[in-house]
Specification:
By secondary structure, this protein is α+β, with helices and mostly antiparallel strands. It has two domains: about 5-85, Outer Surface Protein A, domain 3, CATH 3.90.930.12; about 90-170, Outer Surface Protein A, domain 3. About 20% of the residues lie in helices and about 35% in strands. The chain is built from two helices and 13 strands; from the N terminus they run E-E-E-E-E-E-H-E-E-E-E-E-E-H-E. The strands form four sheets. It has a four-stranded antiparallel beta sheet with strand order 11-12-7-13. Strand 3 and strand 4 form a beta hairpin. It is elongated, with a radius of gyration of 21 Å. The model has no long low-confidence stretch (mean pLDDT about 90).
Length: about 180
């Protein structure tokens, strides 16, 4: 049985937990709302400001898949509660001569100049906000940890950090293994 699954989750202040349907969990907070599907075999119990996840079968009779899903489900609920109360953000920096980022079209399209002969226009997903602090530094923020991370990964894929000069899109403080250039 999962040790993480047995944890009791504390509900942050200002967050509501709702069950619009039988196997749907919805968290609403000041940053937005998130919906999770609850796998069959699990139930969620709300007590005042605590959330517990229980299995519908005895702990001795859990299959491997159910046991693995037990801890995963608790972590997903915990991340959803944190997302709707505090939100998630990822900071990316552009390293290279002439590399810059700017927002166009009411903040829904990110224009990236990454050393190519053309600019790259990245359309942002609905739930994601980007704020450009400097031309070479911008923040990606949102309610869903998965969407924020996936958006950052998609942007980094346009110009990953290269090992010779370290140019590219990277997370500040990220270690880039450098290679020695040609020698005579």
């Amino acid at each position: 049985m999962s040790r993480i699954g047995r944890n009791v989750l504390k509900m942050p202040v200002g967050v509501q937990a709702l069950f619009p349907e039988k196997h749907i969990f919805q968290a609403k907070g000041k940053k937005g709302d998130l919906t999770l599907c609850i796998p069959s075999g699990f139930e969620i119990v709300l007590d005042d400001s605590e959330i517990r996840v229980r299995t519908k079968v005895d702990a001795k009779h859990l299959s491997k898949k159910m046991s693995a899903m037990y801890g995963t489900l608790v972590r997903q609920i915990d991340i959803a509660l944190k997302g709707v109360s505090e939100g998630f953000e990822k900071v990316l920096s552009l390293v290279g001569v002439g590399y810059k980022a700017e927002l166009t079209e009411k903040g829904r399209v990110l224009k990236l100049s990454l050393g190519y002969s053309h600019d790259i226009f990245y359309s942002l997903p609905e739930d994601i906000q980007v704020s450009v602090e400097k031309p070479t530094l911008f923040k990606i923020s949102g309610v869903s940890k998965q969407k924020v991370g996936q958006t950052a990964a998609n942007i980094m894929r346009y110009r990953p950090p290269e090992p010779y000069k370290g140019k590219g899109v990277q997370v500040p403080g990220q270690y880039i293994r450098r290679k020695e250039g040609k020698s005579k």
